[in-house]
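FORM 7B: Structural annotation worksheet

SECTION A. Query
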Amino acid sequence: MNGDATEPVTEAFLAHRNLLFTVAYEVLGSAADAEDVLQETWLQWAKADRGQVRDQRALLVRITTRQALNRLRTIKRHREAYVGPWLPEPLLTAPDVAEDVELAESVSMALMLVLETLSPTERAVFVLREVFDVGYDEIAAAVDRSPAAVRQIAHRARRHVDSRRPRRVVSSNEGRAVLESFRRAVETGDPQALLEVLAPQVVLISDGGGIKHAALRPVTGADRVARMFAGGISRVEGAITTEPTVVNGNPALLVRLDGEIDGVMAVGTEDGRITGLYYVRNPEKLSHVTSPTPLTLR
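SECTION B. Predicted structure
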């Protein structure tokens, strides 16, 4: 294929690349795997007979979804052997993601963990329908099911997610305010201030991937979480600093130890308190939070 023929192919792919990456990421929970899916999508797209293509976006989404589903079925088996809790790979995202409330919620750590409880097909259907408003016929072609079956899957997945997602979506301003209160409480070591910002049934999940130290099970309850922070910080040799950032479209903290990145802490908030703390320490998952260019997901 010569350069003149290749250029329109590349332009069409690049025009939809952010969308395709987001679809793959939401299905997989891994930016690295999503990038691999995009490479596979590009190879199939380059070989497609575009003379027969009426809707380039629909075909690209279909290819991406199929590739992501194939990969998800494989990596789900690997995640069963993961050391300790598994958390999605955090992404440094651009401000426009936070402004899109529905998109920001869909890529939040809290909702991404809920998506992990769906079957691969349910997850793909939910993402395409609820996040990107793809039509049932298009989804059916992407997941190799009938439109009627897709409607049933979408209803089942939506009901499952709705029963587990936060009662309301928190604005970015409210999220930043709660996170700043938490940050001050941690840095000053004030246990009462920490308890005041934590919801009674707050859950702390830390992901070290067997590489960095992390709790092997989720820690539940404000008292237990506060004690873990107090005890953990007192045992650290070195200077801990935190820096506000935006991860997965939501306020988060970039944590450094003696100037080196130690991890990323995302939060889930509700009614002015933190309901979930998600601390990713696995260094293999931190490449997308140190990027100089935040991601735009649409």
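SECTION C. Observations
Strands lie at 198-207, 219-220, 240-247, 250-257, 260-270, 273-280. DSSP finds 13 helices and six strands in the chain.

SECTION D. Sign-off
Analyst initials: ____
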